[in-house]
Amino acid sequence: MNIEQRSKRRKWVILAVPPLLLFVSFFGLTYGSVPITLTEIWNVFTGTEQSVHQTIILDLRLPRMLIGLLVGACLAVAGALLQGVMKNPLADPGIIGVTAGGGLMASTTMLILPQFSYLLPISAFIGAFVTAMVIYFLAWDKGASPLKIILAGVAINALLGAVQNGIMVIFSDRVQSVIPWLSGGLNGRSWYHLEFMAPYALVGLALSILAIKPANLLQLGDDSAKLLGQKVELQRFLLISLAAFLAGAAVSVAGLIGFVGLVVPHAIRLLIGEDYRYLLPLSAFGGAILVVLADTVARSWFDPIELPVGILLAALGAPFFLYLLKKRGLMS
């Protein structure tokens, strides 16, 4: 793809994303076991309608939709940052174990120290960050090998899963409250949960704007970045910290939702290229769109059962991941 074609495609993507986000948001508000029209939504927001629709929209669907937007944006941006830092388009907070690290710390807090539940985002960040650093250290050999990152991530995922299962067995009398969270979903999320995670998510997303320049410079390679006066290891450390913070914010409320950080940045990269000036914001929008759309489908298409969105995204993301592995020759 030449520069002119990429520029044209980039313009089309930028023009398409805002209306698509708006459509998905209204789709999340209107679609469900109780269909609600756009006119009824307008009446609810203008205060001219006092009915059961007001409760459904304002107390159930609206906070859930807003949380889905933030969770999707956080996971997609975290995935885009990790893919750039680790020089591996297959890196994803869920696949390489970062989400599992955050999930282990968060579930441990819920099971062992429930009185400190307000520290969930911080504990999830610590778990995600430590896991990311361990994986990067294990994969480093004069560069971050894509295959080593995947293998280290699989091993760390298995280890963290074993530890988490052990904790759940020990605290089996409390585990019922954690099981839905482990599946990854937005069921039952309310304004309380939005107020709980929004400050962390918004701060992380705002800081990601500052990550655009160093992420682009790291694309040039360590040697070239150093020649341009960049402190490569410090920047890499800060970008991994930011990705872990974003993943932790998402995990603390939505649980273990995977593959958003893999599918969205990779698809955006194929469409518009590697430039993080466009890749990072478009990944945020794309992640928000994917999670809200998948959550609406998961809670509506399987009525009367509400399927956790994490299960649906895993069913869609796993084949995509295997396709990428095969395409890159890592399975040959």
Question: Could you characterize the architecture of this molecule?
Answer:
- The chain is an all-alpha fold and 332 residues long.
- The two termini are 27 Å apart.
- The chain has one domain: Orthogonal Bundle (ABC transporter involved in vitamin B12 uptake, BtuC), CATH 1.10.3470.
- It is built from 14 helices and no strands.
- The longest helix has 34 residues, at 52-85.
Keywords:
membrane, 332 residues, ABC_transptr_permease_BtuC, mainly alpha, globular, transmembrane transporter activity, 0% strand, ABC_BtuC-like, transmembrane helix, ABC transporter involved in vitamin B12 uptake, BtuC
Shape: globular
Structurally, how many domains make up the residues? 1
In terms of DSSP E residues, the strand content is under 5%
CATH class: Mainly Alpha
As residue ranges, the low-confidence spans are none
Overall structural class, as computed from helix and strand content, comes to mainly alpha
* Tally of strands: 0
Q: Write the element-wise H/E pattern from the N-terminal end onward.
A: HHHHHHHHHHHHHH
The end-to-end span amounts to 27 Å
CATH topology: ABC transporter involved in vitamin B12 uptake, BtuC
Into which percent range does the helicity of residues fall? over 70%
What count of helical segments does DSSP give? Answer: 14
Please give the CATH architecture. Orthogonal Bundle
GO molecular function, one term: transmembrane transporter activity
GO biological process, one term: siderophore-iron import into cell
GO cellular component, one term: plasma membrane
Family: Belongs to the binding-protein-dependent transport system permease family. FecCD subfamily.
